[in-house]
Structures are given as C-alpha cells and as structure tokens.
Amino acid sequence: MAKIYFKTFGCRSNLYDTQVMISNIKEHSIVASETEADTIVINSCTVTNKADREVRGYARKYTNAGKRVIFTGCGVKHIGTKLFHDGLVHGIFAHSHKEDIQTFLSSKNRVFLPKEKIQKHIDSTLLPKVVGKVRAFIKIQEGCNFACSYCIIPSVRGSARSFQEQHILEQIQLLAQNGVTEVILTGTNIGSYGLDTHTHIATLIQKIHDIKGILRIRLGSLEPSQIDSRFLEILELPKLERHLHIALQHTSQTMLTIMNRKNTFRCDLELFHAIAEKGFSLGTDYIVGHYGETEEIFDEGLSHLKQLPLTHIHPFIYSPRTGTKSAKNTLNLIQVNGNVAKERLRQITYIVQEKNKIFRQNCTTPLYVLIEGQKVMQGYDSIGQGSYLVGFDQYFNRVLLPNVDENKQLRGQWVVVKKYDIIGKYNFAFDYEVCS
C-alpha cells in the first residue's frame, strides 16, 4: 500500500482542499512526514512570487530525494506546466480534479491536467471528520469577483460561486456528530456567499446557529463593502464569535484607489464603530509599502488607523506579484524602500497591539475558551516555565490556563474563565471551570 504525505502551503481554503483530497483516498495510507512517504502531494499557494519559489524548491528537493511528487493547488496555472516539463514533479492537476485524486495516485502514468475540467467547479465531498482538530474550517464558497490591483487569486480561483446551503449544513451536522463544536466559515471571499444562489450569508449563519452541538461560529475574512444591514442583524446571535476580521488593506483613500479597492475609509470608520459598540473585537489586513505609498499617504493612513476600534491586525509588506496590475506599475508610482516598509509595519503593529491591550483591560465579560492543546512556556514574561493548556476566547485572544491535572484530557473541552491577568499577547487564567 502506497504511503502518501500531503504538504499544504497557504490559506485556510487550501487546508480545506487538502482535507477533501484526503477524504477521497481509499486505497493508500496517509503518513505524517515526508521521510515515511512514497508519494508527496503538494497543495500549492501562489499569492506571491515568494510562494512560487518556496513550492518550486520543495518540489525539487523531494523529487531529487526519489519521491513521487504530485502538484496541485493555486500554483498549477502559473508554474505547474514548467515544473512538469522540467521533471520536478511526477504530475500536476488543477483544482477541479482534486476529488479524482485516488485515480491519479493509483496510476503508474504521469498526470498532466493543468486546466480545470469544470470552470465553476464546486466540491461535493462531505468530510466525516477533520484530522487532528477540535474545530473545523468549513468552505462555503470559492472564487472572487473583486479586481484588487495587487492580487492574483481571482485568476487562479475563478469567479465567486457558492456551495449549496444544504451541502454546508449537512457537512457541519456530520462534523458536529463527530465531536466538532466550533466551525470557521472560510472561502476566497465569503461575503459574496449567496450572490449566485439568491441567498445570503446571514441566512446561512442563522441556520448553522440552530445545529445541535455547534457552540461557536467563527467567520473568515470579510470585505467591508459586503457587510450590509442583513448581516448586521445576526450579530446578536449568541454562538457567533465576538470577533470579526474585516479586510481593509489600507486606510488612506488615495491608496485604496490605487489598489482598486471598493471600500472607503469614511464608510469603514462608521462600520467599525457600529460593530465595536456591539461588544466585538475587530481585526483587519493591512498592506504597507505598496507602490505609490508616499510618506504623506502613509501618515494619512496612520492617522485614520488610530481612529479605528481595532484589536487585531495582520499586516503585510507589499510584494509585487507577477501578472497583477500593481506589479506592472504602469503609472510609475514611487517604490518604497524595504527598510522604510519594515518601519511602517512596526508602527501599525504597535498601535494595534496597544489597542488590543486596552480592549482586554476593559473587558469584564467571562471568557469562553475552547481548549485546543498544550503549550510549553519557557520564561515568557512573568509566566512560569512549564506546560499550559491553550485556546482562544470569544474575542480571538490567546488564553493560557494552568494544567492542574495532566492526566485529565481537556483538549476539545470548553471552559469558562472569570479571573485572569493580561501578560503580553496572552490572557493568563488563574483558574477555570469546565463547561458541562
């Protein structure tokens, strides 16, 4: 029996896609490391030029080590054919072929399927469980209709299309029956859910909320321009995580225009304050160093950033992606020095970290934490060295808990924390109660 190892690069959608492939393997065994494997399946990311280099290097390394390497994912369109013809991989196949992986693995022939068999393909696989996890990513849609100037993803994931509502609900019910209590809705652009099926993400969330066994619903990244009154109405649902990640990408209107974004800072500011007033923590993505980000534009964005009730941030230094409008830079916009971009990244990170600290200091609500595992601490701030339980609270902040009984298996359990200290990025619990 052949031994298969999956190497997943990139985003949550790729993690889900890997689980789909694993669920369609019937005659081979899945192993935990490259050294054990006969065959390595690379589920690639192509969001940056660096991502392409990383997957190419990984493929070369294990092909040279004598492994049979099969390549799929977002990188197929841009580098798959060259990898195949250069002999760096045994086979390649595009996204819509992934449910046929059993056939590819069983064949002795090289696989060359760089084109989608169905342009608007939606997977039909139901995952019976998510390997090694107590919470599950649930893909609800695929593709994106936006045309942000820096982004390559719409060209490799295609236009936005939604999974059928009944498929999603059946998937979550199945996982709930197998012990999953938290689901994270993910996709390329989840705010577009329902546009093609004449429904709405708010309706979907309400129906997921009614599924027995699901205790928390977390959402992936949302676009601010897609958050409407119907969505705002469901924010009172008790199972909805009290944290939203809303991707702004920048807070200077000039830069948003350069990036061909649909959001405006004036509307973003109003939206963020309206949601924060409902008790939510708020995160965002932010790009610094994009072509055209002068010192004046950055300072404008920084001033705007300080006005937002942010608690979390995922900042990036802009990396030109071959094939995008931004990378062509036809307007000859200024290029930002790398050291300058790093300093700008540091500034916005610090500002939001301080906002996060203030949010946690002002929080008087008990924390509800799903225990995900253990973490060994080695002299972090004033936390003593040792093994601690770790999880996230409803505001998406990390929580450390004393592991008072190492023989008691609490992974996958929910606990309530009423008394805790704020130590760096952690909420450190003095004690906790296991929820019944």
List its salient traits:
436 residues, seven-stranded mixed beta sheet, 13 helices, six-stranded parallel beta sheet, 21 strands, alpha/beta, globular
Account of the protein in words:
The protein is an alpha/beta fold and 436 residues long. The chain is built from 13 helices and 21 strands. It has a 7-stranded mixed sheet, with helices on one face. The protein has a 6-stranded parallel sheet with strand order 2-1-3-4-5-6, sandwiched between helices. The chain has a 3-stranded parallel sheet with strand order 7-10-11. It is globular, with a radius of gyration of 22 Å.
How would you briefly describe this protein structure?
By secondary structure, this protein is α/β, with parallel strands linked by helices.
Distance between the termini: 43 Å
Specify Rg, calculated over alpha carbons. Answer: 22 Å
Could you list the spans in which at least 5 consecutive residues all have pLDDT below 50? none
Strand content: 15-25%
Q: What percent of residues adopt helix (DSSP H or I)?
A: 25-40%
**What can be said about the biggest beta sheet?**
7 strands, mixed
Task: Give the number of DSSP strands.
Answer: 21
Quick check: average pLDDT? Answer: 94
Number of helical stretches of at least 4 residues:
13
Structural class of the secondary structure composition? Answer: alpha/beta
Principal-axis shape equals: globular
- Strand arrangement in the largest pleated sheet: 19-20-17-16-15-18-21
